[in-house]
Amino acid sequence: MPWHYAMLVTHIFGGTVLMLLVVLQVWPWLRGRHPAVHRWSGRVYVFGGVVFVGVPALLIPPLSHTGPSSQVGSTLWALAWLAFTVTGYVMACRRRFADHRRWMLRSFVLLYGIALNRLAVAALLLVMLPQAESVYGGDVGTPAIDLAPASLFLSWMLPLVLLEWWFQRRRSPRARPGARPTPVGV
């Protein structure tokens, strides 16, 4: 289908631009010294991302050749990225900058999940290689297709869980040296 190919190319090129642009968003020096650049590049990230990455990411999975598990995983990934990115933008508009930062870090983690996906599938293949002979008759291509759903979920869910753990750890009194826990009942 020609429209599917166009969406895929748009998604890939848009995602590449966003991966470069998001570096401006998380760079503390730029945010502190040039807040206008942060605001404008953030608007490009959000609006360009929704149009050129997020919406195509929802249109591509139904025609994926890697099966229903990958289709579901990719759709959930796209929905989560869109939700996190739009929520982060709304939080900035409401001047709730701590919430904005957390939502946009979630967006950042999901955006870079695609790079981690490539590493995850390679790591899973290395783990499965000894079994390729007995299970797949020496075929290396089939395990890659079988492992695609697992690597897809791992590449965005694991970093997201780690980020949430990091958020909780930063809030916890035990995480700060010298901080005392709040007494029970207070």
UniProtKB/TrEMBL annotation:
Keyword Cell wall biogenesis/degradation carried by entry: no
Regions that span the bilayer: 6-30, 42-60, 72-91, 103-127, 147-167
InterPro entries from the UniProt entry: DUF2306_membrane
Pfam family of the protein (one): DUF2306
Keywords: Membrane, Transmembrane, Transmembrane helix
Protein's UniProt name: DUF2306 domain-containing protein
Source species: Nocardiopsis aegyptia
